[in-house]
């Protein structure tokens, strides 16, 4: 519907040229630190998250999960649960409505509800909905499941041993023909040059075996959603997710409904970091709503959340590097084994990233690389910020320090000597065709002033008063500086941006331009999941920049518009931002054409190609105003939906790993300064300085937040975060924030940031994906600093006190 605008009183006829003043230029566009529209609501507690949703007469859903990691299901008795007053439905595998009973991002190997066996601790077995959440929980507890436990697969040795139990007995996915064992999800070798021959030229060779722990995304908003049955037999689903259309593609076959009968709307998301890319409660809530005929809300508690989403792959990494005596790298060999857990999730893509980025931001001509992901009975692992590159960065940066030490070289100088740059060939044979300022990023972090020594002595005091918050152990008051040693470490990382290996990575944006109450207003509608990254802010900035309007409305994300892809892989500003820009450009051209038809006779500039929209006006590139946008539109509205794609990528060769698999690379470097209590093994990170190339900072304040947030997540896996899985039972030992520790404000150090803006000519505005790169290099920088303080090898993350004290 087109709304009429209020006529303006003007002393000059519409279309008569004037000049635009500086004060009338559009503000809040690209390059400005525009405040987030949801920021105040979130910090004041007024923002409505998915778990806050409510519907009249709604029921509450609950999931019964397996108590063992690998077992046959002999029987399920739901009788007592069904008889519980207030219960409206109890569902098991036998109640699923169609022949499609599995789902998955790439491989449909994940059962909606377990059938015949369970493959990991916490696997969904049955569903209950009732009129109160406690009733649903108690009814689920009455369900009796008879398990016959089976041997568990927990590592590579047990997964590939002769006669090993198969996690999936009847695999038929497209990877099975290319792996050496059915318990290997995917394998990607990369061979370039001759690593064996190059090793003969090395004056120094270093080897290392590294272990990377299982990290949780630890988002604060639990998995939650509300499913509402529709009169047409469909369902409306309001959910916190990262990828609406991927969810839809997986949900529809299980429900036996056409996609148009499943109407999905994004609800408030309390963080994601990859953990919402897979389905959690989406299908379950829909099944219960359709069975009961009532709205059903599901909200996981924190304990269940640890079982309700995938985690970061733990890894074993074996590396060999060689160098000449003057410090030039000769070759690299590595083998990376990722534990994907019971189901595939994003493991194939994680393998692709781990292999192709395993060299890091260094120029090495001769490489021999193998990366693979296992099926096991450990918790399923999939997407998490950094996506395969984090594990590799931890290992190759430890190797760089080992080589520098053996060559008696400064670790930063050694890295700079071997740093990749524009034109460097990656191990896949793909050239880096945009700026790669690796050496400069390292220079920036090294050049920063060091934080003062002995910070725990109160500033301005008598030099003896101790502030224990600045010491290892903090308020535990374990030391007043005795046994505390400072260490400094450096690291730099390489991360891809966007989906890779030939994936059709596109996004869609609908942009509408109309006059409301006499003012031009742009409305932007995408299916992008706003998970806290600030995309809604950037979309409004792009619309202001391209359309020259101050009033921009962002429509709620839903499936009424085409797919925006996943909010992951640092891709949304690049790809959905590119789609918004593309659609805005189409709207602008249509508006200018409308203006030419109406006012072209007033001024010859209407016939030129250099017209802009600025401050609600049509202007020449010299600033001359040709018309008001409101006068051009009048009663008309321009509404355009467009898809936008970045340049194509290609799959890696399955034998050699060669191919132009990535669309863009991002780089970040860190310097960590730590204080270590060498007697108790406690670590205090004092500073984590970062330098990162962002191409173009569309919103500098948001860029800073992304860099500092990613840095903090890397700090977590360095010194505290790890999901502990019992190697004998494959059960999770610490599914709570009591036992799974994440950095608090007291653990988070100062994070000064240097931002470079070296434009990538292939990207919208020259931007570069920001969110993941700082997660890579912060972890090895902290480990390097602890090694520097203690002299210990430290070949695993996270570092615990016993690793430092030997106890």
UniProtKB/TrEMBL annotation:
InterPro entries xrefs: Ald_Oxase/Xan_DH_a/b, Ald_Oxase/Xan_DH_a/b_sf, Ald_Oxase/xanthine_DH-like, AldOxase/xan_DH_MoCoBD1, AldOxase/xan_DH_MoCoBD2, AldOxase/xan_DH_Mopterin-bd_sf
Aldehyde oxidase/xanthine dehydrogenase a/b hammerhead domain mapped to chain residues: 44-151
Disordered: region residues: 1-37
Recorded GO MF terms: iron ion binding; oxidoreductase activity
Coiled coil start-end: none
The protein's name: Molybdopterin-dependent oxidoreductase
Organism of origin: Streptomyces finlayi
């Amino acid at each position: 519907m087109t709304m009429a605008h209020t006529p303006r009183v003007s002393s000059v006829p519409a279309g008569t040229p004037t000049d635009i003043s500086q004060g009338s230029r559009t503000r809040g566009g690209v390059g400005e630190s525009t405040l987030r529209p949801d920021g105040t609501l979130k910090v004041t507690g007024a923002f409505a998250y998915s778990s806050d949703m409510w519907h009249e007469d709604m029921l509450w859903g609950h999931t019964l999960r397996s108590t063992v990691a690998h077992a046959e299901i002999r029987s399920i008795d739901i009788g007592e649960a069904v008889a519980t007053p207030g219960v409206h439905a109890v569902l098991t595998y036998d109640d699923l409505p169609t022949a499609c009973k599995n789902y998955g991002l790439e491989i449909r190997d994940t059962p909606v509800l377990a059938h015949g066996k369970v493959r990991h601790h916490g696997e969904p077995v049955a569903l209950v909905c009732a009129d109160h959440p406690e009733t649903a929980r108690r009814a689920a507890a009455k369900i009796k499941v008879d398990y016959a436990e089976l041997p568990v697969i927990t590592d590579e040795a047990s997964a590939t041993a002769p006669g090993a139990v198969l996690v999936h007995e009847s695999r038929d996915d497209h990877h099975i023909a290319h792996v050496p064992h059915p318990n290997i999800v995917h394998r990607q070798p990369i061979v370039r040059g001759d690593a064996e021959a190059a090793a003969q030229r090395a004056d120094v060779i270093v080897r290392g075996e590294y272990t990377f722990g299982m990290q949780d995304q630890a988002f604060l908003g639990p998995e939650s959603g509300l499913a509402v049955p529709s009169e047409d037999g469909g369902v409306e689903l309001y959910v916190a997710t990262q990828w609406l259309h991927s969810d839809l593609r997986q949900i529809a076959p299980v429900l036996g409904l056409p996609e148009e009968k499943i109407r999905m709307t994004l609800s408030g998301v309390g963080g994601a970091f990859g953990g919402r890319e897979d389905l959690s409660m989406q299908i379950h809530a829909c099944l219960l709503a359709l069975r009961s005929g009532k709205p059903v809300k599901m909200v996981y508690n924190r304990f269940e959340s640890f079982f309700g989403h995938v985690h970061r792959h733990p890894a074993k990494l074996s590396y060999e590097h060689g160098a000449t005596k003057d410090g030039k790298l000769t070759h690299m060999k590595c083998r990376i084994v990722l534990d994907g857990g019971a189901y595939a999730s994003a493991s194939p893509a994680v393998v692709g990233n781990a292999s192709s980025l395993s060299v890091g931001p260094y120029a090495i001509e001769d490489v021999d690389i193998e990366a693979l992901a296992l099926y096991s009975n450990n918790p399923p692992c999939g997407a998490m910020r950094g996506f395969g590159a984090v594990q590799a960065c931890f290992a190759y940066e430890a190797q760089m320090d080992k080589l520098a030490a053996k060559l008696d070289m400064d670790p930063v100088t050694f890295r700079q000597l071997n740093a990749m740059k524009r034109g460097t060939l990656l191990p896949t044979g793909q050239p880096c065709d945009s700026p790669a300022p690796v050496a400069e990023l390292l220079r920036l972090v090294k050049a920063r002033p060091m934080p003062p020594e002995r910070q725990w002595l109160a500033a301005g005091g008598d030099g003896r008063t101790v502030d224990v918050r600045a010491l290892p152990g903090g308020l535990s008051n374990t030391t007043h500086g005795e046994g505390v040693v400072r260490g400094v470490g450096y690291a730099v990382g390489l991360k891809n941006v966007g989906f890779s290996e030939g994936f059709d990575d596109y996004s869609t944006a609908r942009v509408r331009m109309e006059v409301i109450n006499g003012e031009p207003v742009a409305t932007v509608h995408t299916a992008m999941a706003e998970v806290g990254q600030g995309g809604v802010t950037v979309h409004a900035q792009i619309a202001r920049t391209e359309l020259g309007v101050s009033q921009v409305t962002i429509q709620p994300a839903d499936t009424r518009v085409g797919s925006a892809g996943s909010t992951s892989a640092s891709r949304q500003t690049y790809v959905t931002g590119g789609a918004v820009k593309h659609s805005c450009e189409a709207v602008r051209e249509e508006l200018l054409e409308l203006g030419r038809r109406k006012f072209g006779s007033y001024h010859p500039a209407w016939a030129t190609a250099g017209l802009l929209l600025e401050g609600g006006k049509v202007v020449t590139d010299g600033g001359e105003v040709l018309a008001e946008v409101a006068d051009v539109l009048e009663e008309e509205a321009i509404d355009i939906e467009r898809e936008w794609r970045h340049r194509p990528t290609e799959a890696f060769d399955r034998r050699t790993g060669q191919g132009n698999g990535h669309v863009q690379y991002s780089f970040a470097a860190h310097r960590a300064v730590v204080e270590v209590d060498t007697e108790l093994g406690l670590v205090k990170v004092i500073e984590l300085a970062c330098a990162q190339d962002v191409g173009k900072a569309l919103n500098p304040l948001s860029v800073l937040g992304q860099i500092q947030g990613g840095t903090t997540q890397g700090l977590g896996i360095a010194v505290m975060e790890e999901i502990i899985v019992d190697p004998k039972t494959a059960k999770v030992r610490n599914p709570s924030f009591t036992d799974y520790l994440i950095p608090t404000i007291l653990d988070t150090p100062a994070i000064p940031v240097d931002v470079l803006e070296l434009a990538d000519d292939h990207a919208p505005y020259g931007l570069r994906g920001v969110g993941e790169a700082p997660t890579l290099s912060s972890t090895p920088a902290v480990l390097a600093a602890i090694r520097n303080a203690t002299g210990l090898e430290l070949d695993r993350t996270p570092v615990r006190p016993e690793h430092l004290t030997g106890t």
